[in-house]
Amino acid sequence: MSRRAVVIGAGLAGMLAAAALSTVADEVIVLDRDELPDGPEHRKGLPQGRHAHLLMAGGLAAMEDLVPGVSMRKHLLAAGAHEISLSSGMVALTPEGWLRRWRHEGPQMLTCSRALLDWAVRVAVLANTGAKIRKAQVLELTGSAHRVEGVRISTAAGETDLEADFVIDASGRGSRVVTWLAALGISDVREKTVDAGLVNATRIYRTPEGAESFPLTMMQADPYQSRPGRSGMVLPIEGNRWMVSLAGTRGGQPPSDTEGFLQYIRDLPHPILGRLISGAEPLTDVHVSRSTSNHRRYLEKTRQWPERFVVLGDALAIFNPAYGQGMTVAAMGARNLGRELERHGLTTPGLARRVQRGTARSVDAAWTLAVSQDIWFPETRGGSPNIADRLLTSYTRRMIRTATSSYSAASAIWDVTSMTTGPTRLLRPSTVLATLSGPPLPAAAGPPLTPEEREIVRKLDRTAG
Predict the structure, then answer these.
(1) What are the residue boundaries of the structural domains of the chain, listed by start?
(2) 71-111: per-residue pLDDT in tens?
(3) At how many degrees (to 10) do helices 351-374 and 387-403 cross?
(4) Is 87 within 8 Å of 414 (Cβ atoms)?
(5) What does UniProt give as the signal peptide span (predicted)?
(6) What is the CATH number of domain 4-84+107-193+292-372?
(7) Alpha-carbon distance 436 to 71, whole Å?
């Protein structure tokens, strides 16, 4: 008998879920209410789409496991993405000082526009699986609290029921899953929001001639000074362009006008970002987004969970985008789905509950990293530091201070932020010993640039005049 799977949402999480389902379902239908672009273009259903996105090594590894017949790394690089080493290809000012750059290779991350990444993943999945996309709005789930049997949809032809042997909700931060579950009789979904009031402001520039290999450069917000956090980043994206993204928490938000944007970047703790873009040609206006809170639905903790229904991606949890975890968590959730389907098949009793609980583990790690920082910003809503948070923060701050000049400590942080290992990596004896010993070298006085990179900054700098 033919088996059909339905995925709600054609974004990153939805397309990767479709790839996982395609190995066990005869028909995979992806539903999306938006008209999807034919190329790497922004679409309105993605409020953070115009801002900086980092695909960490853990997320890329998950993608490599999901899409049959294609190397997603090679596919994304061919589409224009940049590959950046966390150990040598990045200049970063942390709250504890400048991180040194090392000759040893560390985890890699990919940078590109979100529009390019979503389009490239969609193309790869559609070309290498039997998944199909259909324009429709999902109104509700059909079935019962015991088992979901499909979805009710609205199309240009009217409303109809679409039966399915398995349903995935990957409809993003606007998901109505709590309402849908309540209609089935499941009303004990616990939710939590931690909101630092972060605002993102982003503008695209043409990469200046001669600066094509300049490293990704960022200044992280400092949550520990009892004042609003301010951060900035210049990262390479496709099309020989720089994405310049600023962010500020409640009380320190970046403005949307061009002059205010430039002044904000000049007022950051170090002038390097302002110097870089002062000699670069802007290609767009400033785009601002305020959809940045951490929000989690603890679906794995409900007393009852319906068979054949799973929630993935932003529909399950969203994170402050400053930490670059959302896409990786979505990919890891889809990989978890794929592995469970491979072991147990599409309709095994208890499968959906097992997938939901397994996916929660990668959400836990990302949530802890994001929230443990955001609760320190003034006027954060939904959380404040307790004794455990203070102990954890004391240790992690000491570790980051050590990592400014210790390869051992730095590599532990890279592994965790890349989500190639879990947070217990920070408690290995070698990491704890390095942390307790402290930084082996004096703090760097400025950004760790090569002589060639310093010359690029000097040539681009228009601020002195």
Answers:
(1) 4-84+107-193+292-372
(2) 999 999 999 999 999 999 999 999 999 999 998 878 999 99
(3) 80
(4) yes
(5) 1-25
(6) 3.50.50.60
(7) 41
